Each structure stands twice: as C-alpha cells, then as structure tokens.
Amino acid sequence: MPPLHTALLQSSGRPGDVAHNLRLLDDAAREAAATGAGLLACPELFLTGYAIGGDVHRLAESADGAGARAVAGIAAAHGIAILYGYPERAPEGERDDAADGLAVVYNSAQLIGPDGARIANYRKTHLFGCFEREWFTPGDRSVVQADLAGVRIGLLICYDVEFPENVRAHALAGTDLLLVPTAQMHPFQFVAESVIPVRAFENQMYVAYVNRVGEEGEFEFVGLSCLAGPDGVVRTRAGRSEQLVQAAVDPDFLKESRENNPYLHDRRPELYGHPA
C-alpha cells in the first residue's frame, strides 16, 4: 500500500479572522498537494484562533456550517484531505445544559476528505485550564476514526494525547495515524519533544502533532509540530516559526513494526484496574 504523505501546517493564523485563516489554509493546501501530500493537518482552533475569549460564541458554528463548507471547497479544489480545528456550536437538542442562555460549544476538529466530504468530527474530551473550561463543554466520545487512502485515522486534540488511556484506546481500535491538532504552550514543550514519540512507539502507530506558534493573548505557543513513527523516530519536526512540513505515513512499515513489537500482544488487561 502506498504511503500517505502528510503535511502539517504550523500556524496560528490571525485570531478572530476566519476569512484570513481560510486564505492561509488554501495556500497551504495548494502547496502541500503540489508536493504530493494527500492529507493536510492544521492546529487546534485554527479556523478562528485560540485566545479569542467571548468571540468563541460569536464565531462558533455547526459541523456543517459556513467554515466547514469553505474548507470542503478548498479540499476538493486541491484534491487533498484536510483536518482543521474549530469551535463547534452544538445542535439545538444538545443545548439543554447551556449556562446563561448561551449555546453549548465544543472544541472540535473535523476531517474533510479530498472530495470535500465531511468524514469525521471529534470533540475534545479533556479540557485544559480555566480558559477552556470557561468557554467549552467537553466531548464524551473518546475514539473517532475515519479511513483515508487505506490508513485508519484517529482524532484527539492537544491535552487529550497526554492521557495514555486515550491513545491506547485508539491503538486497540486499530488507529494507524493519530492526528492531534494542538495549542501547546510554554513551558510544556516537552510534550512535543518527548511524549509524542513515546506515545507513537508504545502504541505502535504514527502520531501527527500540529501546533500553533507565537504569542496569542496570554499564551505563548511553542511550535515544534512533529510526525512520529511507530519506532519512536520523528519523521519531521518544525521549529518555532510558521512552517509547512511533511512526512510519509507508511502502512507497510507500520505492519512490520507491529509484527516486531509485542506491546499490544503482551498486554495483560486482567491486571489493570481502573480506580476512580
């Protein structure tokens, strides 16, 4: 099976300016597709920006909203799948628990196929810090997957990947490539540098970690986006500036690595309790 060349767009765009960020995405999709990439992944909340406070509710939209339709058009125009982060406004039936009359909003990531079809939507399950807990509601589905070019893709967002249970659940569900749009900030850069390659190795999968970069409100995002393989080796690593980097996800290498690495086979789940 041919490799799935995967591009990572490390950029914070322009917070609060969806139109500008869509133009950046279009340029990146054009460049990535021209170099043979079949998938382009963007950071957490790329569509709107991360540190936008009350604008979360103003800019939130449904999973099939205007932003989704614009991204679908970009994907279809360039023949490349796109993963992007955005604030998702819940459907009417999910708003019963909203406070102060505001709609429920999730911190979400959506995967659009190369034909423009929406193929997976994930809501962040582990919210980080006071900022996220103020503006977002946590999702309740831990494993969301889609198949693309013979590769089973799974979705998590930022803090989610720091819980080993989340990634192991994906491994047991057969995820080949875990896409993790993120807003990783100083001083937690060790996650990008160390945790991500370990997660890839211990779960025998590829992990793409796509970060924001630079200062945004009170946050300083550290960049260092990477794609790590099932051998724990980082295939590509961005620096501390806006960049588009690319690496291959090789199903044949993944199959060989899984055959040679016994982690999942040697598990003894009967010994692993789940205390509260």
Protein model, in words:
The protein has seven helices and 14 strands. It is an alpha/beta fold. It has a six-stranded mixed beta sheet. A hairpin with a 5-residue loop joins β12 (226-228) and β13 (234-237). The longest helix is centred in the N-terminal third of the chain and has 17 residues, at 18-34. The radius of gyration is 18 Å and the shape is globular. The N and C termini lie far apart (42 Å).
Question: What does this entry show, briefly?
Answer:
The protein has 276 residues and is α/β, with parallel strands linked by helices. 27% of the residues lie in helices and 27% in strands.
Structure characteristics:
276 residues, 6-stranded mixed β-sheet, 14 strands, globular
| Unreliably modeled segments | none
Shape: globular
Distance between the termini: 42 Å
SS content category: alpha/beta
Strand ordering within the main sheet: 5-4-3-2-1-14
Radius of gyration: 18 Å
Largest sheet report: 6 strands, mixed
The number of helical runs is 7
Overall pLDDT level:
95
Order of helices and strands: EHEHHEEEHEEHEHEEEEEEH
Could you tell me the number of beta strands?
A: 14
The share of residues in helices is 25-40%
What amount of the residues lies in strands? Answer: 25-35%
